[in-house]
Amino acid sequence: MATDHYIPQSLLRGFADHANGGNLNVLDKISGRVFHPRVEDFGIEDFHTLSANTGETSDDLQLPDLETLLNESFESPAAPLLQRVIERSSLGGLTPDERQIIIQFVALQWVRTPGRTFDSRSALARMFGKEEPARSLRVFGTPSKPDQLRDIGLLAIPVDAVGLANVLRRAHLALALAPGCQAVIGDNPVIARSSFELPANGYAAFLVSAPGSDAFLPISPRHILYLHTEVDVVRGSCGRTLLDPLHLSIDALNYLNGLQAKAAVRYTVMPMQGQEARLKVDISTQPSGNFDFQRCFR
Fold first, then answer.
1. What confidence tens digit (pLDDT) does each residue in 80-98 have?
2. What is the pTM of this model?
3. Hey, what long-range contacts does 286-291 have (CB within 8 A, 24 or more apart)?
C-alpha cells in the first residue's frame, strides 16, 4: 500500500520539527494525544488509487496515476516558487504564469481535502433527504471495492482545481507574516470566509471563489498566502499581486489559527454522536482584533 498525501509533503516539511528529527507534531483532535509521524507517513493509504475495475471497458483508455499527476502538474511546479516566497518574505518578482501556478496550488488544496468532499456529499444527502455518509477521512471509500462514483470523484480533483484556479485569476494575492512563527496548518489548509450567507439547503463547492471571500493558506509557520475576491469583482479580470507583506497582529493570527482548528474538528472522524458540537470552537463569533484583512486592497 502507498501513503497518499492530501497535504503535499513539500508543504508539510515546512512545519516539521527539524530540531528533533524532522518529524511532524500532530494533534489528535479526539483524544488530545500528540504524535510525531514522519512527513512521508502522514497521509491516507491508497487514497488516490482508482478502483480495480476502472478502465476495463476499453483497452485504449489510459487513466493517469492520480498521485503522480497531482505531483507533476500542481505540487512540483509550485514547490520552488513557495520556497522562494518564504526565503524572501515577498511575492515580488512573480511572473503572471508563476502567480497562476501558486493560485492553482491554493485551488488544489481547497478541492482535494477529505473535509471538503465530505461536506459536499453530506449537503447533497440532506438536499435529497438521504442519510448522511459516515464521518471518515476515507470519503471516497477504498480501491478494493469497485466504485465508479469513487473514481469519478478522484478524477475530478485536478479538473476542479484547474477550473477553480481560472476563476481565482480575478482574486488579489498577498502574503501575510505571522508574529512569532506561530501559524498552523490544518486538515483543510485553506480557510475561506465570505461576506454573504448561504441558504441552509445550499452548498457552494467553490465558496473560496465567491465575491467577497477571503482565503488563507499557511505555507510556513510564519508565511500565509492570502487571496481576496472583491465583492464587485468582474469575471475575466485579473487581481493584483501585492509585493509588500502584511504583518498580522497576534489577535489576527489567533483568529486565523482558530478557524483552522474549527475546520480541523469538523473534518475529523467523530466516534460519538454530539462530540463534534462539544469539541467545535465557535471562533466565527469572536472578533479578529483590530486587523482589517481587506484594508490593503482598498
1. 999 999 999 999 999 999 9
2. 0.84
3. 286/255, 286/258, 287/251, 287/255, 288/251, 288/252, 288/255, 289/249, 289/250, 289/251, 289/252, 289/254, 289/255, 290/249, 290/251, 291/248, 291/249, 291/251, 291/252, 291/255
Q: Give pLDDT tens digits for 9-42.
A: 888 888 888 777 788 887 765 566 778 888 888 8
Chain CA centroid to CA 23, Å: 21
pLDDT at 100: 96
How many Cβ atoms sit within 10 Å of the Cβ of residue 231? 12
**Look-up: residue for cell 496548518?**
185
Of 261, 254, 256, give the one whose Cα is nearest residue 279: 261
Which long-range contacts link 9-16 to residues 24+ away (Cβ below 8 Å)?
9/39, 9/40, 10/75, 10/78, 10/79, 10/82, 11/82, 11/109, 11/185, 11/189, 11/219, 12/39, 12/42, 12/185, 13/39, 14/86, 14/219, 14/220, 14/221, 15/184, 15/185, 15/218, 15/220, 15/221
| Distance from C-alpha of 106 to C-alpha of 187, rounded to nearest angstrom | 14
Distance (Å, whole) CA 199 – CA 120:
14
Give whole-number Cα distances, 79 to 41, 204, 267, in Å.
19, 28, 26
Degrees (nearest 5) of the Cα angle 126, 127, 130? 50
